[in-house]
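hi! just following up on the protien thing from before. the input was this:
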Amino acid sequence: MDFQSDYEKIDLSKQDFQYVFNNILQAIMAKLNLHLPAAQNDPLKEQVSTILEEFLINTFDNSKYSILADGLDLQNVLIHDILSLKTLENVEKIDSEITIQLRKIFQEFEQETVDVTKLRRDLPKQASEMYNDIIKQTDGEVSEIINMIEQQSQEYQKVQQAHNNTDDRFEKIIESMDFSQINQNYNDHLQLLNETNKNLPSLKIEFEKYNRTVQFLEDAYQQQLKEMDG
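and the predicted 3d structure came back as:
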């Protein structure tokens, strides 16, 4: 059968092509079972089933000229090969090492999923506990600073009060002092000091005379003792 090739073809995968075929075939068999609800070994039913299946295969065989399967033209491909999922491209052999790596990756992914789930459950609780600890610690530090300020304020007040009391006592002492009498006593002592300074030279002469007299008497007494011993 010749078809023009200047039209746009429908691009499907072979799996999609077979999926459509199987769905239509199942619908036909359902209709057949509805109209010929006989046993499976009924020759008439088997003959009709074969005719219907061949008709469907021929229909799909005619449609292959307007379809690209996995990007490949199906004109020279048997419809049975497509419907049996015989692939047109070379299928690489499964690498066991890659399979092991993929299995390991999936295991790690599952473990990460478990860890993330656990974090979603535990992190809010941990964040709440950390927040409460910070609030408690901050409250304690603020309370300690406030107490320290209050103690310093009380000590300052005590010192200020003591200073005020000292000033009061000092003022009372000042008020009780008789400065005129103190001034008079000061002047009297200055006068006495001046007179003493004036009399000091004569007193010094008198003292020297007294010292020589005492020394003379001492020498005379020692001489007398010697004479008596002799």
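Residues 61 and 78 are 8 Å apart (CA to CA).
Residues 96-176 form the longest helix (81 residues).
cheers
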